[in-house]
Amino acid sequence: MFKRSVAVTGKRLVSDMAQSATPMEDALRAKITEALNPTKLEIFNDSHRHAHHTAMRGVTSRESDLNRVFVTSEAFRSKMQPARHRMVYALLKDEMAQEGGIHALQLKTRTPEEEERQKQEAAEQ
């Protein structure tokens, strides 16, 4: 599993995604950062786990299963999970629609308070 975690404190522009080894991840990170200004953003690339699946035959993308994205953002305040997920899906619609694009996506969307509460609960266990 590949995981890249970044505590986001400001906007980060991705320069020349065509030269990147992870252009799909870079596109997701840029779009989510631009639109949602997350305080925490984790993108997990599990593509290697699914390379042997029948549906993946002939697919050359090593990023088709960036299938876990965890986002903490104020933009989710007062929104239920389905609305939060629709926000993220709307941002990533091009990456999900393109040939060889993302075909599986699991989201965890939290507000900063929900993130802090989850940390406290984990610490108590």
If you had to describe this structure to a student in words, what would you say it looks like?
Residues 102-125 are annotated as: Disordered. Pfam families: BolA. One of its GO terms (cellular component) is mitochondrial matrix. The protein has a four-stranded mixed β-sheet with strand order 1-2-3-4. Mean pLDDT is 78; it is low at 1-18 and 52-56. With 125 residues, it is α+β, with helices and mostly antiparallel strands. It has five helices and four strands. Helix content is 38%, strand content 17%. 23% of the residues are buried. It has a single domain (2-124), classed as BolA-like (GMP Synthetase, Chain A, domain 3, 2-Layer Sandwich), CATH 3.30.300.
CATH class: Alpha Beta
Could you say how many structural domains there are in total? 1
| Range of strand content | 15-25%
Q: Please work out how many helical segments DSSP would assign.
A: 5
CA-CA gap between termini = 26 Å
Key traits:
5 helices; alpha+beta; disordered N terminus; globular; BolA; four-stranded mixed sheet; about 120 residues; BolA-like_sf
